[in-house]
Amino acid sequence: MVKVTENDGEPGKEMAGFLIKYHLSQLRSVILASDPRLHYPLHVDFAKLMDDNPQLAHHIFSQPTEYLPLIDESAIWAQKVIFEDFKKMENASVKTHVHIRINVCGSPLECPETFPSIGRVRVKHRGILLTLKGTVIRSGAIKMIEGEKIYECRVCKLRFKVHPEVETRFTITRPSFCPSQNCESMRFQVVEDKQICHDYQEIKIQESTQVLGVGAIPRSVPVILKDDLVDMVKAGDDVIVTGVLTAKWSSDMKDVRCDLDPVLIANYVRRMNELKSDIHIADDVIMKFKQFWSDFKDTPLKGRNAILRGICPQIFGLFTVKLAVALTLIGGVQHVDASGTKVRGESHLLLVGDPGTGKSQFLKFAAKLSNRSVITTGLGSTSAGLTVTAVKDGGEWMLEAGALVLADGGLCCIDEFDSMREHDRATIHEAMEQQTISVAKAGLVTTLSSKAIVFGATNPKGQYDPDQSLSVNTALSGPLLSRFDIVLVLLDTKNPQWDAVVSSHILSETEQPKINHDENLSDIWSLTMIRRYIHFVKGYFRPILTKEAEKVISSYYQLQRRSATQNAGFVYKTI
Description:
Elements: H1 9-22, H2 24-31, E1 40-45, H3 46-52, H4 54-62, H5 64-82, E2 98-103, E3 129-139, E4 143-153, E5 159-162, E6 188-190, E7 196-206, E8 220-226, E9 238-249, E10 260-271, H6 283-295, H7 300-308, H8 319-330, E11 335-336, E12 342-343, E13 349-353, H9 359-369, E14 373-377, H10 383-386, E15 388-393, E16 396-401, H11 403-406, E17 411-415, H12 422-426, H13 429-433, E18 436-441, E19 444-449, E20 453-458, H14 470-474, H15 478-481, E21 486-490, H16 496-508, H17 527-540, H18 547-562
Parallel strand pairs: 1-2, 8-10, 13-20, 13-21, 14-17, 17-20
Antiparallel strand pairs: 3-7, 3-9, 3-16, 4-5, 4-6, 4-7, 7-8, 9-10, 11-12, 15-16, 18-19
């Protein structure tokens, strides 16, 4: 254990001065809070602390185990300094349960050494202020643990505190000797009325699969949340966690080697759900988008086609499919009526086609365009893997998020949709329409959010027969087909002229790649620009249907209802 080299009071006083100088409003809200038993956070920007006191910031980074408790005490000192100004106000009191939460966003600690991916966490990261980013795949129950015990020596009557150790799973070991220099007693008694407890929760975060290469297994790490941090996140949330990496002994199971498992004790947790579209769009890029459409003001369809050429450029033609992919990713507008009934704004797309028509290519490209995506195949997916799994860890049951929960707010691509078992397909009905997943497993009854776009691809059952209905050709049930807003059929017509054009396009791709990377919108749009444009449209536009558009949609819906088959490209759905 590393001892603090300077006077223990100095860093606390310096931190108290910093809090009074820059975080007076937060201190005021804590003092005026009504309940003194609650735990209150004080959020501090590490970048601002580095500018004000570099030496203290360095100590917090290099020795967080020693300095984080000291700066928590500084919050109490800071309250006492300014308490005179609020003493006459109602409910004003100095709160003893205040915790400094360090936010490293925008600071030098965002470098790869102190902000690695979860798979690159090593022993060298132990004992420093570490930041990890991932998706919550498991959320444990909230428990109560002892924060400290006060023992009294039976001989010299000295009282001293004993804290639990993470390595021994937060058990408090009975002291073996008296800390007093002149006493050699080994007999102690616990002071019962001085017991301090904390809220405690364990979660597990997993690194994003989008940043991993092919064949890499996503790694995960358990995270310990205490006091005001508990119950902040749930399975499926994207989080950034700052804390101290340590180790604890694995559970003692028979015939299993006992190892030290890495665990992150969290100091600060930031939910990224509101910031899922973490693509920053500069003002000059937005001006380019506006200039682009002003150039095509008289011919908007030409402008639309210019954008679509950048979607899956390795596939020739198929502009209808590319338009469907773009509209599906952009989505619609969610409606909530007066009774609270929600009509989803996300669209679902299903591609039905012969082998070799490029269905999987569209799925993979759509996953690249989405900020959060999960790709899976029908044969390798089960109902639990798509929704939620109940797993037993340390003697208790926990829920582990599946593909649709991990894709919340993004895109879930399911290839080979026809190879899924029937009861596995039935589990996604609720997720596609109500955008929730209801779970009742192992005594755990809950509802998880699943606002994901489902993009499926399937082969027809045998040779596609245009005279038969879509459900007969695909062997998919009517309730499942009705949840897809658009179903496109891709047929291999074996046209020699078309085959010649497509083969020429494929062979010429290696010779003249014309995709622009200099953000010039006159050529084929790059993948980055299309991602920015989709994010721009989703964030800035809320389309409203005109009376003429409503009339067209109503007439088409009635036509589809009268039609004997559903093979006009779209599948009707109940409104």
